[in-house]
């Protein structure tokens, strides 16, 4: 075996071992949601941002905090409220009397992991303050651009738009999130375990970091080395293209969605100890990566079909590529 191949095998061994530690750490706090935890870890390694949407009280903020605390890095939490200002997120230039000049006071976005709690309770203007930072990993204030820390991940929670006091995230904002997950209500057995483990103490207080930001950066480099064949790339383009032609959707997924789908598939393959992406990876990630970016048509709403149902149907209708690995 060549030195390069040996090094690659060691990289993937490190990735699966560290990812396993992160998953187990999160699962000490989040009971009975292994698929949701797996998606969260996948988005982290794919350098994406995660949107967690569900009704209050099912553990959205707990998941976000547990993922953040499992990594020894800088973490900031933003509680989104109607009176939150954009400068609270990005920072502001303040005049310093001593030096007689303006100096920049960084906002809450200057951290490795930013937990945005109930993001859709803030005004659209404040929500938009995250746009540049999420896409370009930088913030511009008073014509000066400041680079954000690496790794950088936004984990935002939101309540369903039908809830009182919420502002729907605009399409441009939703498109910045690599994936959206819903917690759902726990199974009775998991809820019973939660009563035993959470009623007396907060399990977050006992959660210790199992990795650090530098190791996460190494794992991200490993994910970027995962091979994507031409046939798999064409399959990704076909899946996303199907959302733009569907009569059930009035807004299809963007080219950014195709890019995010490939990045997430690379991470999923690496977590499965594979150095190449399979069409199966794209199929499994299609709903969390694409469903929040599309808008169902009125006829689909009347028929009781949501975005996830439509994406699932499109995945079943798009032919698989002939070759699974080039």
Topology (SSEs and partners):
Layout: H1 3-27, H2 34-45, E1 50-53, H3 60-69, E2 71-72, E3 75-79, H4 86-90, E4 91-96, E5 101-106, E6 113-117, H5 124-127, H6 131-136, E7 138-141, E8 144-147, E9 153-158, H7 171-174, E10 179-181, H8 188-198, E11 211-212, H9 213-224, H10 230-245, E12 249-251, H11 255-271, H12 279-290, E13 295-296, H13 298-302, H14 307-317
Parallel strand pairs: 1-9, 1-10, 2-11, 3-6, 6-9
Antiparallel strand pairs: 4-5, 7-8, 12-13
Structural features, described:
- This protein has 326 residues and is α/β, with parallel strands linked by helices.
- It is 46% helix and 16% strand.
- The protein is built from 14 helices and 13 strands.
- It has a five-stranded parallel sheet with strand order 3-6-9-1-10.
- Strand 7 (138-141) and strand 8 (144-147) form a beta hairpin.
- Helix 1 (3-27) packs across helix 2 (34-45), helix 9 crosses helix 11 (255-271) and helix 12 packs antiparallel against helix 14.
- The longest helix is centred in the first third of the chain and has 25 residues, at 3-27.
- The two termini are 21 Å apart.
* Order of H and E elements: HHEHEEHEEEHHEEEHEHEHHEHHEHH
- CATH architecture designation of the domain at 31-208: 3-Layer(aba) Sandwich
Report, as a whole number of angstroms, the end-to-end distance. Answer: 21 Å
Q: Please tell me the overall pLDDT.
A: 87
Largest sheet: 5 strands, parallel
CA-based gyration radius: 20 Å
What does the oligomeric state look like here? single chain
As a percent range, the share of strand residues is 15-25%
Q: Which structural class do you get from the secondary structure elements?
A: alpha/beta
How much helical structure, as a percent, in the residues? 40-55%
* Global morphology: globular
CATH topology of the domain at 31-208: Rossmann fold
The total of helices stands at 14
What's the CATH class of the domain at 31-208, please?
Answer: Alpha Beta
Sheet with most strands: strand arrangement: 3-6-9-1-10
Uncertain stretches: 1-7
For this structure, what is the CATH homologous superfamily of the domain at 31-208? P-loop containing nucleotide triphosphate hydrolases
């Amino acid at each position: 075996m060549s030195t390069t191949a040996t090094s690659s095998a060691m990289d993937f061994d490190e990735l699966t071992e560290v990812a396993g530690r992160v998953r187990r750490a999160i699962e000490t706090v989040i009971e009975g949601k292994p698929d949701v935890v797996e998606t969260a870890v996948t988005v982290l390694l794919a350098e994406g941002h995660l949107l967690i949407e569900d009704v209050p009280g099912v553990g959205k903020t707990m998941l976000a905090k547990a993922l953040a605390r499992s990594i020894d890095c800088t973490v900031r939490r933003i509680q989104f409220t109607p009176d939150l200002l954009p400068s609270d997120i990005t920072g502001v230039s303040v005049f310093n009397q001593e030096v007689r000049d303006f100096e920049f006071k960084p906002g809450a976005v200057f951290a490795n992991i930013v937990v945005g709690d109930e993001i859709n309770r803030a005004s659209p203007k404040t929500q938009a303050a995250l746009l540049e930072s999420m896409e370009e990993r930088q913030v511009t204030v008073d014509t000066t651009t400041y680079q954000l820390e690496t790794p950088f991940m936004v984990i935002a929670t939101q309540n369903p738009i039908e809830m009182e006091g919420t502002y729907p995230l605009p399409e441009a904002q939703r498109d910045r999130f690599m994936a959206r997950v819903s917690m759902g209500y726990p199974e009775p057995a998991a809820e019973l375990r939660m009563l035993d483990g959470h009623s007396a103490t907060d399990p977050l207080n006992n959660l210790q970091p199992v990795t650090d930001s530098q190791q996460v950066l190494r794992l991200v480099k490993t994910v970027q080395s995962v091979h994507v064949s031409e046939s798999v790339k064409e399959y990704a383009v076909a899946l996303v293209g199907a959302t733009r032609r569907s009569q059930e959707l009035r807004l299809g997924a963007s080219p950014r969605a195709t890019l995010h789908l490939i990045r997430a598939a690379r991470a999923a393959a690496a977590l499965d100890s594979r150095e190449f992406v399979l069409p199966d990876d794209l199929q499994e990630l299609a709903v969390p990566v694409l469903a929040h970016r599309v808008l169902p048509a009125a006829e689909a709403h009347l028929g009781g079909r949501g975005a996830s149902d439509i994406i699932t149907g499109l995945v079943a209708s798009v032919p698989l590529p002939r070759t699974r690995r080039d």
